[in-house]
Write a structure and sequence with these properties.
This protein has 271 residues and is mainly α. It is 64% helix and 0% strand. The two termini are 36 Å apart. The mean pLDDT is 88.
């Protein structure tokens, strides 16, 4: 990354931070899911480190990785099929991208909770014990590559134009922050169609397989029997496993065998 690119990323991060605070902090105060949760709640600094890491370090790595594989994978699909996809009406393309990506992320997300190797990285996100707009950014970079690739690469490879995908990407980004926010705006039966923060809050329950794996629309959860939404907030968020409390620890621990990490931890405790 050049100095100019770093300054550009720094500027984008600053604008995003101000925008998100202006949108979500008032919303969390007016419509709180947990009424007594403070803005500077426990571990907010850890989540802020993840926020900084996403904008200044890992977003470039994720984009480079996806572009690297996209250049190869786009040659798999026949050009004639890609042209038929691109020739469809714009709104139809957007709808198809939404449905396809929602289907893929449901099963990909469900695998993250059921396959131990994927869970090693995904549990970093679930280690957050307090949910708000900032906690949405707690994510291991390899977990980000998996998720973003699953959502975006298939549509790109099939020939959907970037114009059709870009709006969906932007909407999903804001939506992901919204469903993690400390907000409860009950919308009745409509939440089966478009989801709500309370659904994702139950996904972050201590139970690793609590359900609600869908992203935008919970229809997949309803169809496959993983929909869960009691009329209250979970008592606790987080995971039942022991996890590092530092930013570097949460980045490094999933990469190492458990016995190696245990030795490192024991050594640091003796210092």
């Amino acid at each position: 990354m050049t100095l100019a690119e770093f300054y550009s990323a720094l500027e984008a991060m600053g604008i995003s931070l101000v925008f998100l605070m202006l949108v979500f902090v008032p919303m969390e105060k007016v419509f709180p899911a947990k009424k007594h949760q403070k803005i500077l709640r426990p571990k907010w600094l850890l989540d802020f480190c993840f926020f900084l890491g996403q904008y200044l370090l890992w977003s470039g790595l994720v984009l480079w990785t996806l572009n690297y594989f996209a250049d190869y994978l786009t040659s798999i699909i026949p050009n004639s099929f890609q042209q038929k996809i691109a020739s469809q009406p714009f709104l139809l393309q957007v709808f198809e991208v939404l449905v396809l990506s929602d289907f893929l992320i449901y099963w990909g997300h469900r695998l993250q909770h059921n396959v131990d190797f994927l869970w090693r990285f995904h549990k970093v996100h679930h280690s957050a014990e307090h949910l708000d707009w900032l906690a949405a950014h707690r994510e291991h970079p390899l977990d980000s590559i998996y998720t973003i690739g699953l959502i975006n690469l298939p549509a790109f490879i099939m020939g959907f134009p970037l114009e059709s995908i870009a709006g969906v990407i932007a909407f999903r980004g804001i939506w992901a922050i919204y469903i993690h926010s400390n907000v409860r705006l009950p919308i009745g039966k409509l939440r089966i169609l478009i989801g709500a923060p309370e659904l994702h809050h139950w996904h972050h329950d201590l139970d690793r397989r609590a359900g609600n794996y869908a992203n935008i629309s919970p229809i997949m959860d309803v169809i496959f029997g993983t929909y869960k939404c009691p009329d209250k907030e979970p008592e606790k968020f987080g995971i039942q496993e022991e996890t590092p409390n530092s930013y570097l620890g949460q980045l490094i621990e999933p990469l190492l065998p458990k016995r190696v990490w245990d030795r490192i931890k024991q050594g640091s405790e003796k210092l």
